[in-house]
Protein: Polyprenyl synthetase
Amino acid sequence: MSEQPLDRAARCARRFDVLFAEYFETLGATLEAPSFSRFTPECLELLRDLSLRGGKRMRVVLLHEAARLVRDEPVEGLDAAALSIELLQTHGLVHDDLIDDSATRRGGPTTYHAYRERFPRHPQAALGLTVLAGDLALALSLRVLLDAELPVEVRQAMVEVQTRAATDTFVGQIADLERDFAPAVPDDDVLHDVADHKSARYSVLAPLYLGLLAAGEQPAAFEEELRRYARLVGICGQMRDDYLDLFGDAAAMGKPTGTDLREGRRSYTVARLLSAVSGAERALVEGALGDRACTPETVAAVREIGERRGVASRMRADMRRYAEQAGQVAAGWRPRWREDAVGFFERLPMWSVERAG
Structure:
């Protein structure tokens, strides 16, 4: 990607962070809650803290670039759509951290662990409040669209996009858990379907749809190619995350490697490892898989096996292949949409892969 779209993306992210902070500042006054309730403002504060704590805001950038496919001037409705996208992301983070029993997220405590600390003698209350906090973020992601000053048909279309995206994500999360209980090592078709449902449809496809709708385009007319692009980008992104979890630089990432191993997740990396090893090496990988006490030394040994058996290099090659395919899909948009924005979507997948190098 050239400097110009990168700078534009950074400006977009900074502007949205200000917008998100302003949204939470006014939310307490607009959300109807019983006057006696202390738990409600505490819940909103936890959601605010998690939402504003970090993140690259790439979904917001995709939304704005999707609108730029059609026109370059300011477009009404993008702020509401951006808030909806990131509130849905907050919902996902709250529930993911609960499912994984994660203690930290974005350099701070997860919502679940914050509630566990708040209610050390009432674990069921901490669990229930965490679920409700995630549910509230989901409801707010839809309400912000319903409250947007947009033509009724645009509002309804946007709500439908987000509702479908949320539904697909929940199905993907269920399938993600199911994948780890299957007796056989999952093949690429299974892993691709999980990546598509769990992340691509709400992180890539929904922002594309929302941006096009805001700009006056009818994305349903291009559904097949938009879905294919989103699926390929989603596969790339999930492969990158899985690759970095074992082969990445822990210091650069700011978190330890080997999480998927310790949690017993049959990710792209783990599935390829299991398919590439036998004998003592397989016994080592299987012994580490699902062992939460797995040491950094064991993770390093598994990493060395993966590098020696060509798993790391094959994953890098696969990521590049899927990125190239996604770029080719986007390149086909040139006869229809603006060159500058098409170029952004064409280069985005490979830029993402190169971050994993």
Q: What stands out?
A: The longest helix spans residues 3-30. The chain has a mean pLDDT of 93. The domain at 218-357 is CATH 1.10.600.10 (Farnesyl Diphosphate Synthase).
